[in-house]
Amino acid sequence: MIRRVFKAFQYRDYRLLWFGACTSSIGTWMQIVAQSWLVLDISKSARMLGLDAFLGNIPIFLFSLIGGVVADRVSRRKLLLGSQWVQLTCAFTLAALFALHVVQVWHILTLSFIVGTAQSFGGPAYLSLVPMLVEKDDLPNAIALQTIQFNLARVIGPVLGGIALTKLGAAWCFGLNGVSFVAVIISLMMLHMTFKPQPTGETVMSSMKQGFGFIRKQGAMEALILLAFCMTAFAIPMITFLPVFAKDVFHSGPGTFTTLLVCSGLGSIAGALIVAALGNVRNKGRIALLMLIAMGGTMAAFALSNNFIVSCVLLFLAGVALMCGFTMINSLVQLITSNEMRGRVMSVYNVAFRGGMPFGNLASGWLIPIFSAPLVISANGLLLILLGAYFLTARRRVASL
User: Fold this and answer.
1) Sign of the Cα pseudo-torsion (399, 267, 305, 302, in order)
2) Rounded distance between C-alpha atoms, residue 103 and residue 310, angstroms
3) What residue numbers bound the domain in which 32 lies?
4) How high is the pLDDT of residue 338?
5) Helix or strand or coil: residue 18?
């Protein structure tokens, strides 16, 4: 059983990438905890918290399509290395600003946009790299393990970030995040790369059109990309605005916020472990849609709960549903896509998956001061239930995958 869950670890290069990315993700979540809390503390505004999340993710919506073309034309390792160096520099810059006591909200917002821009080029390259490191039959397991590393970091990172924030100060959170990028840089340098981009005389626009053409020919691919967008647009604001629930619903501080974030992360790890254990299971589309409905229900229940223990349990269950649904959709997209088109197709998927975040966060950030966080997040959950039910009963192409 254990061997089946961690089957992709038999590949040396995959192990290297996994452990490097996990270390970097832990640092990133340490920064997210400090940054989210301090933006809310400095600005006293949920809208500013939503704007910070928006600026961190909107470059992915704007530039990922170009990043996907680049990922199919140049070394994916070099592209990823460039992205890591930019993010490392931004983390150290923010640490210095805090250490010198000169940081302002606009500094944080600007650096969030720069980091998002770097991720818009690194994201398609990273998503295209993982399938090259394992055999096709082991790809769903590899994707599940990738979500485990991300969510393991989402548990460890906030705990370490909460300790560093309260005991050492925000500058340490940002500085340690900068150091964590060294791990993924080293792992990328050690990979044995097999993909060699083929020279082409096509323009960037022509290459992007080829990617869109491939997607249109793949039947349910368009629906999968739409689901990825809606999933993050409606679900991620629950995580983004956990500081608001900690302050306004439970009347507590960073410790409560960290606990809520950890519960969500633990649920996501459990969901990813379930998918990893299942392996290349059938009916991925139906499972994804059922998880979408489950996620909406647990989100709405969490938003309306005033009991802290119940809220933690509901966040855990929402995390399970989120990761099961996300991993199934990601696996379907990767399995349908050919390697020479992978950068472009995954850039479109990345635009949808990551692009839903800024729009969802910005909209929720504007609505929460008017209607309250519980009402807005519960409405998001209801929309996810309706979306999953529609694709499960009316438009069944995804459900048949």
Assistant:
1) negative
2) 37
3) 2-194+204-393
4) 67
5) helix
Mean pLDDT of 317-333: 87
Please determine, for residue 223, whether its predicted confidence score (pLDDT) is greater than 70.
yes
Q: Distance (Å, rounded) from C-alpha 181 to C-alpha 25?
A: 9
Does residue 57 belong to any structural domain of this protein? Answer: yes
pTM of full prediction above 0.85: no
Say if residues 187 and 20 touch (Cβ distance below 8 Å): yes
Q: Which two tokens stand for residue 184?
A: 């993924």
SS3 94: helix
DSSP structure class, residue 197: P
Separation CA 54–CA 356 (nearest Å): 10
The residue type of 364 is S
Go through 186-196 and write b for each residue having 16 or more CB atoms within 10 A of its CB, e for each that does not. Answer: ebbeebeeebe
| Residue 127 near residue 151 (C-beta atoms within 8 A) | no
User: What span, in angstroms and rounded, lies between the C-alpha atoms of 154 and 219?
Assistant: 34
Question: How many separate domains does the chain show?
Answer: 1
What is the rounded distance in angstroms from the CA atom of residue 113 to the CA atom of residue 96? 18
Torsion of Cα atoms, 120 then 126 then 128 then 134, to 10°: -170
**Does the residue 400 lie in any domain?**
no
Asked if residue 399 is part of any domain, the answer here is no
- Across 38-52, 240-254, 333-347, 366-380, least confident range: 333-347
Domain containing 89 — which CATH number?
A: 1.20.1250.20
Residue 138 domain flag: yes
Predicted local confidence at residue 126, as pLDDT = 81
Q: How far apart are CA 291 and CA 387, in angstroms?
A: 11
The SS3 call for residue 193 is: coil
Contact 303, 378 (CB under 8 A): yes
- In order of 71, 130, 331, 347, 366, the CA distances from 208 in angstroms are 12, 21, 22, 10, 33
Establish how many alpha carbons lie within 13 A of residue 153's alpha carbon, considering only the half-sphere containing its beta carbon.
Answer: 22
pLDDT one-digit tens code per residue, 64-120 = 778 777 777 777 788 889 999 999 999 999 889 888 888 888 888 999 999 989 988
pLDDT in tens, 122-177: 877 787 777 788 887 788 788 778 877 877 787 788 778 878 888 887 888 888 88
